[in-house]
Fold this protein.
Amino acid sequence: MLEIVDIWKSYEGQPLLQGISFSVAANETICLLGPSGSGKSTLLRIIAGLETPEQGQVCWGGQDLASLPAHRRHFGLVFQDYALFPHLDVAGNVGFGLKMADRPQAEARLRIDSLLEQVNLGGFAHRRVTDLSGGEQQRVALARALAPEPRLLMFDEPLGALDRSLRERLLQELREILHSTGVPAIYVTHDQEEAFQLADRILMLHQGKIVRAGTPADIWKEPGSAWVASFLDIGNVLDGSVRKRGGTWGVETAAGWFQAECGSQRQEGDPVQLLVRPQGARMTGTGSIKDRVTDVVFQQDGFKVTLANGLHFYLPEGPQSGEEICLEIAPTAVQCLE
């Protein structure tokens, strides 16, 4: 399958991609997740053959693809702006790749009809693409990418221009289509909800490097670094130092002392970054965190409570803004980061 080996790329004299390596297995969906400017789209264009790396290889089945132009790599690419042909109807857009491959007309017609049904656009074959909604146009773009039966699908922020409810619906449909077709895929996004819903495995990019890789569950459980925890908004990230209280190890921070096991490699007084998950708090009269409430927001099954020290927690009952509260933090909600 696809293997990316030590890819380097610079932009205006600054490193954009720095030694990127990973592989994509059969039937696997990989999400490249990171902020704007982290190199995600550039990496996708290098894989597609639209840009060349300064160093490294893009291989398929062990073969270096450097000498193959984009149209011969047999990869499908779906963009955020759809990139449809406005002078062609829906069937013409979906069948464009089939026409370029000289597929027999009858065979192409059957393939187009099948794909339109698969993306919930049955009966749309002769519609003008300019008359379609954004969600419908993105479905056409997906069907067009699938039509030539690519060996790899690539998506560059494909749902970024759609509203939230439509984006969630299309994301579920895309997940089902990828699973039913078995086509391996690389999906680029800055939206963690998209990545966590769609991916079998997530690669997190920061400053041109993969800083965390794993399944969505693994990354959420063990973010590994303060940057990952902050970007994913897993919880409160604090600077502190390792301190012992009454024989119990913990971390002293500006917000208070938290019980935490930071590993045998750290000594008392060592600096450490701490993740405090907001779900692990409860109000009590003797809690280790005591501060004034500055904001309370109802969130369906509870309240997001923000304190004057900047920390936030989720509580089943909402205190009053301005009220001083004490919180006890469960040790299981506290985690030392690398």
In short: Residues 3 and 235 are 34 Å apart (CA to CA).
